């Protein structure tokens, strides 16, 4: 290891690693996981867990093989996990990425829109600088002050810087061809305040409008660059490994994770500095949707039938994104089973409006006329 790399690594400790992951994890959120119920996660479970919140029985140690020890173990190789692995390896950390997808069918990330505050890229495209206090006040108002102020402030102060780092590895001219900032340069017809509700510029849209009739999404191409960079730095991907449960020491600190391979074998990966849970959302786990997403549950209750809630299928009150990604909530389960908690509700879906109806809105200018493609 070079002297520079040694010096870089000296700047990483458990606390600084977890702080940096808070910034990278705030930018994106859609890793992939393998479909397995809580009852299936432990070998020889005598009875199924009562709910997803119930920690499964311990896995028989005799069935667990050693997967090695790494500075950082990343659960999920999607948007957040990939950027996490890239950042950690850049600091000289040894990294293991636990990914349930197959290597051949691996989708490194989903989506095309990345919202940040005051990135240099957005400012260079004409986005006005956002007043951080105004943004935080609007965030608090929309969440009825139920949000985590410290986490919100960390996002506001760091998301732009992290985004600029993420795109810094693209070739010269790549961003000009494959990305733009939504509604920038600003136009008078774009409403930034409606009935007291404020909106802000800064969403980068990774879409090449010159390709195909509706453009081609390019965010995954940028993530591929980061995977190559992370692997060049020594990061290792373990495909078809589904994280089953975190290891804890006597103090309750997370020290590693136990995975289950496609052929049913258990493997323990130990972490010196930390485990980053980046395994995606729970939109295809119906039990978690009903339990956590109050707006979805209330909609079904208002119609008199919880059976209307459908997770990951095109029927009923639909919740779910890319059908090829599992989104079983396993990363959230691992966090809860390790002693974490879900913040107080009510909780809504990522989009607002009538639950499960998809793109339901129109963008209207000051004359009440539609002026753009709302899903671009």
- Spatial order of strands in the largest sheet: 10-2-1-13-12-11
Number of helices: 11
Percentage of β-strand residues: 15-25%
Quaternary structure annotation: single chain
Task: Pick out the low-confidence regions.
Answer: 1-10, 22-46, 352-360
Radius of gyration over alpha carbons? Answer: 21 Å
Coarse structural class = alpha/beta
Question: How many strand units?
Answer: 15
Helical amount: 25-40%
Distance between the first and last residues' Cα:
45 Å
Arithmetic mean of pLDDT: 82
Biggest β-sheet description:
6 strands, mixed
Q: Order of helices and strands, N to C?
A: HHEHEEHHHHEEEEEEHEEEEHHEEH
Describe the structure.
The protein is α/β, with parallel strands linked by helices and 376 residues long. The chain is 29% helix and 19% strand. It has helices spanning 3-10, 14-25, 79-90, 120-124, 132-142, 149-167, 174-178, 219-232, 286-292, 294-302, 330-337; strands spanning 64-75, 95-99, 113-115, 180-181, 193-194, 197-198, 203-205, 207-208, 216-217, 236-239, 241-248, 254-261, 266-277, 309-311, 317-319. The strands form 5 sheets. The chain has a 6-stranded mixed beta sheet with strand order 10-2-1-13-12-11. A 3-stranded antiparallel beta sheet has the order 3-7-4. Strands 5-6 form a two-stranded antiparallel ribbon. A hairpin with a 5-residue loop joins strand 11 (241-248) and strand 12 (254-261). The radius of gyration is 21 Å and the shape is globular. The N and C termini lie far apart (45 Å). Residues 1-10, 22-46 and 352-360 have low confidence and may be disordered.
């Amino acid at each position: 290891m070079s002297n520079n790399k040694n010096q870089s690594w000296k700047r990483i400790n458990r606390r600084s690693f977890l702080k940096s992951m808070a910034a990278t994890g705030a930018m994106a959120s859609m890793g992939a996981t393998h479909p397995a119920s809580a009852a299936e996660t432990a070998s020889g479970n005598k009875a199924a867990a009562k709910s997803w919140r119930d920690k499964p029985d311990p896995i028989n140690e005799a069935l667990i093989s050693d997967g090695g020890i790494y500075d950082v173990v990343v659960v999920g190789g999607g948007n957040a996990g990939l950027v996490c692995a890239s950042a950690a390896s850049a600091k000289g950390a040894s990294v293991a990425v636990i990914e349930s997808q197959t290597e051949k069918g691996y989708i490194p990330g989903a989506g095309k829109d990345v919202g940040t505050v005051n990135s240099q890229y957005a400012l260079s495209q004409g986005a006005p600088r956002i007043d951080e206090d105004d943004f935080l006040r609007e965030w608090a108002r929309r969440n009825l002050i139920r949000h985590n102020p410290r986490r919100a402030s960390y996002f506001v102060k760091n998301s732009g810087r992290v985004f600029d780092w993420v795109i810094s590895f693209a070739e010269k001219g790549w961003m000009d061809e494959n990305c733009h900032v939504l509604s920038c340069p600003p136009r008078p017809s774009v409403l930034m305040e409606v009935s007291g509700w404020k909106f802000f510029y800064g969403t980068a849209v990774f879409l090449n409008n010159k390709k195909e009739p509706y453009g081609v999404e390019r965010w995954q191409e940028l993530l591929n660059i980061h995977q190559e960079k992370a692997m060049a730095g020594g990061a290792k991907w373990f495909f078809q490994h589904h994280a089953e449960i975190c290891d804890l020491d006597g103090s309750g600190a997370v020290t590693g994770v136990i995975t289950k391979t496609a052929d049913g074998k258990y493997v323990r990966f130990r972490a010196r500095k930390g485990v980053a849970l980046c395994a995606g959302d729970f939109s295809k786990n119906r039990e978690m949707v009903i339990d956590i997403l109050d707006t979805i549950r209330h909609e079904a209750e208002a119609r008199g039938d919880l059976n209307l809630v459908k997770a990951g299928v095109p029927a009923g009150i639909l919740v779910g994104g890319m059908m090829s990604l599992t989104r079983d909530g396993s990363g959230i389960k691992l966090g809860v089973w390790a002693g974490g908690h879900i913040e107080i509700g009510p909780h809504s879906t990522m989009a607002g409006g009538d639950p499960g109806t998809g793109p339901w809105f129109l963008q209207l200018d000051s004359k009440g006329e539609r002026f753009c493609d709302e899903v671009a």
